[in-house]
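A reminder before we start the practical. When you read a complex entry, don't treat the lines as separate problems. The point of joint prediction is that each chain is placed relative to the others, so the output describes one connected object in space. Small molecules and nucleic acid strands, if listed, are placed in the same frame. In the example below there are two entries. Take a minute to note the order of the lines before looking further.
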Amino acid sequence: MDVTCGKVVKGVNFLNLKNAGDPVELAKRYSDEGADELVFLDITASSDNRDILRGVVEGVARAISIPFTVGGGIRNVSDARLVLCSGADKVSVNTAAVENPQVITRLSDVFGQQCVVVAIDAKRRRDKAEGKITVETHEGPVWFEVYTYGGRKPTGIDAIGWALQAAELGAGEFLVTSMDRDGTEDGYDIELTRAISERVKVPVIASGGAGVPEHFLKVFTEGKADAALAASVFHYNKYPVQVVKKFLREQGVIVRP
Amino acid sequence: MPEAVIFDYGVGNLLSLKCALEKVGLDAEITVSPKQLQKADAIALPGVGNFSAAVTKLDSVKETLLDAVESGTPLIGICLGLQLFFPESEEGPGEGLGLFEGKTVRLRGSVKVPHMGWNTLRIVKPNPLFDGMADGSYVYFVHSLYPVPADKEIVAAETEYGTTFTSAIASRNVFGTQFHPEKSGDVGLTILKNFAKTVKR
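Here is the predicted structure of the whole assembly.
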């Protein structure tokens, strides 16, 4: 769930945000419907909405009894402590980690590796680039560029190389979002997910593009994802959580009922 | 309401456990005070932190805690809290509570560590904690180590992850879970409700 000013919003390719509801109510609904874990990203994080963020995190912690991750604007140990002490189980870092990779090690040392999710927003690049890890896809070789500031700033950094570095520094989990697919409901970026999941030893959550239950199946089987995140498909009740889970179970994927 | 105290090792999220205990009818206080431990109706050792740091924090209340348990106060240890029941851990130096013989060892092998996510319980010993719970229920794990009790009689549940490990123990008024009941949805709340039922006032 992308949260801004205390409301859940959803966009397409990180733009045109629409209001999708109250975070605490949605959290309760998804928990009751059988979601395994929730992720809240405060996509327009800034210092003046800290109190709103804390209120939302505490509200969610009281409403549900499944794990949840909170990210957005977490730059250091004290930001992370605020979120974790308000009831979150994990924090996710994105921009701060790219700009200062040591923050991953700091957080991991203080709170434990299992608490530290490194979120990577990545976009496909078709141009040739020296020193980037390229991946063969049906549209030819591509590399993946890391974006920061909620998808607003291209960094020139190779996402796969960055994941390997972050893993070395103590990332406990990766949340890999395809900006090309986000909100499109065209399916996850399988090549991006697999390229990272096959190279790191910690769990990878695939994000961006889920539209139908088959997309989940594909990202688990071909994409080698450890978990799949979806927003639009659940927010607008196109496929409830249980419908997706039932489909996966019928296809032989082990999922919690 | 009976009062449960959650011992605070000083790191991480204790609010979830507090909320969950309150949901099942216990008045939960987060504390480091021996006085509060002494008069508590139930004690919870939570699951966030590092073994060596936690045993240092526990040192000043160790006697009080052991006396309370001896006198019958229900105790639940969650994740690290369970590992603290045993004298030693591969996580680091320090001496645990020594409630049971055995030691805590690291998860090894080809699986991704930490073991993070939902997994199933195989109930090997019926006990009050698992009343009304189906064998094979899913619960939530986040851990890199697990306890190996010397006395297999105390093992209440086992779980598969690269190896078969002890995921819950039960012995008189002492219960421990390697998973997080406070994060395990309705199944977890059932377990905590069962724990609350063992609490007498």
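Discuss with your neighbour: The mean pLDDT of chain A is 91. What might explain this?
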